[in-house]
Every structure is written in C-alpha cells, then in structure tokens.
Amino acid sequence: MMSPMSVNWTTLTTLRATPGPSITVPPATLLAITRSTNLKPAVVRPALEELVKQGCVREYRTQYGKSYARTAEGDQRIRDVKEWLR
C-alpha cells in the first residue's frame, strides 16, 4: 500500500506525460515532456533521471538528442498510485 509520503508528485506528473509502451507513438523529447507537464526543464530533467534509475522510463539516444518512453514498470507505478488515490 502506498502512502502520500512515498509519492513524488513531480516525477509522477513527468511519468504520466511520457509516452507508454503500449502505444505506437515514438518516444518523447525533453521539450515535449516539458510542454505536457507545464513544468520547467530544470524540474523535469532531474525527475526523468530519477525515473530512468528506477526503471520506470527508458532513455533512447537518437541523432537529435535523448528521447524517453515509459516502461511497463512505469505503467504499473501509475496504476498503483491511481489505486491508492481511490
């Protein structure tokens, strides 16, 4: 069971803005995720780094820079938080 103290709402918002593994949308760039979350890049970048370390987001290196996509673990984290909020 999750508690409110164990949820970092900035990383959760960033995770929700990242495209998931079950859709056919390509991975999103930092700029696209920043626009979706309405947060500054200085806030989103550390959140993405933390999510990559946790395994919730996968980082892809392209010729245009880095792109990010949510993993199955990230989807499970979102479901856990939704269940906790009910």
Q: Strand content of the residues, in percent? A: 15-25%
Distance between the termini: 12 Å
Sequence of strands across the biggest β-sheet: 1-3-2
Query: Total number of helical segments?
Result: 4
Strands, total number: 3
| Overall helicity | 40-55%
| Main beta-sheet strand count, sense and barrel state | 3 strands, antiparallel
How are helices and strands ordered from N to C?
A: HEHHEEH
Which residue ranges are poorly predicted, with pLDDT under 50 across at least 5 consecutive positions? none
Model description:
With 86 residues, the protein is an alpha+beta fold. The protein has four helices and three strands. It has helices at 9-17, 30-37, 41-54, 72-85, and strands at residues 28-29, 57-62, 65-70. A three-stranded antiparallel beta sheet has the order 1-3-2. Helix 1 packs across helix 3. The chain is globular and about 40 Å long. The mean pLDDT is 85.
Keywords for this entry:
86 residues; alpha+beta; single chain
SSE diagram, text form:
Elements: H1 9-17, E1 28-29, H2 30-37, H3 41-54, E2 57-62, E3 65-70, H4 72-85
Antiparallel strand pairs: 1-3, 2-3
Helix pairs in contact: 1-3
TL;DR?
By secondary structure, this protein is of the alpha+beta class. The protein has helices at 9-17, 30-37, 41-54, 72-85, and strands spanning 28-29, 57-62, 65-70.
